[in-house]
Amino acid sequence: MRIIAAVPNWNMGSSLIPLLASLSAESLDGIYVLDDASEDGSPGQVETTFPDVVVVRGDHNAGAAGNRNRILPFLTGKEVIIFLDADMELKTHNLRKAVRGSFSIPYTGIVGGLILNADGDAMEWNYGFAMTKDNRDAALADAYSGRRQVDWVAEGLFAVRSDVFRKVDGYDTRFRYHEGQDLGLRVKQAGYDVVFDPRICARHLEIDVRGAARSREWSEGRRLFYAKHPGTGPDVKRLSVADRSDDAAHGDDL
């Protein structure tokens, strides 16, 4: 089993370079930077600083889901891909061993890691269950308690078998938000387990490059998810941008 890392990047050169330095020390079988038409010079900086890293340059901004799919032509079906957002600080040492151990259990398709927020505490939504109204406090309290089966994991830090990723045709490129929830459900529908394993850990530096587009993309992804997966949440007909604050106040994880 080959272990490779794929780092989606869009204008995050300041955090991307330290992350690549950490990954380069982990004896992985390959590191790929999936660049979503960055304008900060980071692709060239990576090529100069890390000649062994493969930079996959996108000719247009495809969004989070479309950009992650740029790894597909490089897969043989015999890898595990570790996806890490470019604004992550790797906390797990001997990452290769941790990932291999987590995928040693049959039928494991996706393993999500523990993401800490910038303050070092567990992120609220590291994983979830079929996009229903889960108890957020319980999920947060459980984040350190060990490996468990879930329905989806946060897309900022997770690993996936490449044969499974190809089998489900990667990400649905229509999503620019909530793409991880959709991927998790489709992997489970294909007959594989989705698990959360806090032995794989990184700290999210929380660099915001989406800006004002975040709220709109959040709402669009929400409507798309519920339209695609009926029965997992509220009636898609009632959703609008204005619903976001109301739904968040009621604890809805989408």
Task: Describe this protein's structure.
The chain has 254 residues and is an alpha/beta fold. It has a single domain, classed as Spore Coat Polysaccharide Biosynthesis Protein SpsA, Chain A. It is 31% helix and 24% strand. It has nine helices and eleven strands. It has helices at residues 13-24, 42-49, 63-68, 95-102, 136-141, 162-167, 179-189, 213-228, 243-249; strands at residues 2-9, 30-35, 54-57, 79-84, 88-90, 108-116, 127-128, 148-150, 152-153, 157-161, 193-204. The strands form two sheets. Strands 1, 2, 3, 4, 5, 6, 8, 10 and 11 form a nine-stranded mixed beta sheet that branches. Helix 1 (13-24) packs parallel to helix 2.
Summary, kept brief:
This protein has 254 residues and is of the alpha/beta class.
Helix content: 25-40%
Q: Report, as a whole number of angstroms, the end-to-end distance.
A: 34 Å
CATH topology-level fold name: Spore Coat Polysaccharide Biosynthesis Protein SpsA, Chain A
Assembly form of the protein:
single chain
Tag the structure with descriptive keywords:
254 residues; alpha/beta; Spore Coat Polysaccharide Biosynthesis Protein SpsA, Chain A; 9-stranded mixed β-sheet; two-stranded antiparallel sheet; 24% strand; globular; disordered C terminus
